[in-house]
Amino acid sequence: xxxxxxxxxxxxxxxxxxxxxxxxxxxxxxxxxxxxxxxxxxxxxxxxxxxxxxxxxxxxxxxxxxxxxxxxxxxxxxxxxxxxxxxxxxxxxxxxxxxxxxxxxxxxxxxxxxxxxxxxxxxxxxxxxxxxxxxxxxxxxxxxxxxxxxxxxxxxxxxxxxxxxxxxxxxxxxxxxxxxxxxxxxxxxxxxxxxxxxxxxxxxxxxxxxxxxxxxxxxxxxxxxxxxxxxxxxxxxxxxxxxxxxxxxxxxxxxxxxxxxxxxxxxxxxxxxxxxxxxxxxxxxxxxxxxxxxxxxxxxxxxxxxxxxxxxxxxxxxxxxxxxxxxxxxxxxxxxxxxxxxxxxxxxxxxxxxxxxxxxxxxxxxxxxxxxxxxxxxxxxxxxxxxxxxxxxxxxxxxxxxxxxxxxxxxxxxxxxxxxxxxxxxxxxxxxxxxxxxxxxxxxx
Length: 445
Hints:
Blueprint: E1 3-8, H1 14-22, E2 40-46, E3 49-55, H2 68-81, E4 84-90, H3 97-106, E5 113-118, E6 140-142, H4 151-161, E7 174-180, H5 186-194, E8 212-218, E9 221-227, H6 240-254, E10 258-264, H7 271-282, E11 286-292, H8 300-314, E12 323-325, H9 336-348, H10 354-367, E13 372-373, E14 376-377, E15 380-387, E16 392-397, H11 405-419, E17 427-432
Helix pairs in contact: 10-11
């Protein structure tokens, strides 16, 4: 799709505009400057026309942010790939010398540039725009990212200047969440996959604040990569922005099909890695353990055996999740991640026919009869799959409230064994039998 890049000095309201145009809350909004560091992408639509919007970090040559050089690099990358640019000014504060820093980059461009004076909440405040005439750019468009004033008019003008984008892909796009504790190498991995420095990478924990979406193609198949802020223990999360980042990271897990839980192979699995894996398990997305920084590991044969044992021992609740080692720096086995993602996703979206499912349930009950309840045998009548992603199965029984967790686990493992769904979460729910239920499964008693 065509791409609109939103730019401006720090704290002019770019992320608020981004959220307004994309009708989302993907970008973090805070009064502190420097909240946005990475390029943050989302889809937008106006009057039937679809396009992509990218939010960028605030551009200022004298920015005290430790990541200023990386932020500037991100802004230049966005300028290069954009089809149109929205340069945002602060209508409350008025013109600033810092506006000129970015204008010096934009003036030579041949691309459509829209100059938006933000924080103009109504027509009565349009007089504030007069101060910006001295910048020598125009025309100026009054907008309010917070209240929506002027946004439809701007978008009407925008879609007339955007080039026609390619047709939508005709295949489903697998959404991959990349999660892990800070500094495990999440952004480095995505940059290696994308083949460009799209995400800010630093040795400083907490570099990534927003959840950032990127689209890539591997072997002709499209994938949506979701980078997230590193998740720390609650006691370590003190600043308000970092707390919000963790919330966004967890929310990102809710919309991914497969989560890559990134471990630092040079340090081994930690309690926090297990907590993060627990978040993925709670949200029932597919999951793959990725031990990164394999290039730093010595005696790899012993280290591999030890890591696998640690993962299986400490994250038993994800015993179905595959495990592999990579190096995001050297690229070792990075492409094989997608082979594994495809396998997990195939199982994650699998559907079992009702006939096959009930034959499996019959065999399971005959092989291991359920226990008695108040002198009567617990009876399983029939089962049906009600949804996918993950495969969710409902069993109708006479006393669903007394199914012991050990028998629940037995049935899940038996279904995995018989269906081959050994690399995906599997939901098994129990419901009271419907009165008109047929196909009673004989279970004794």
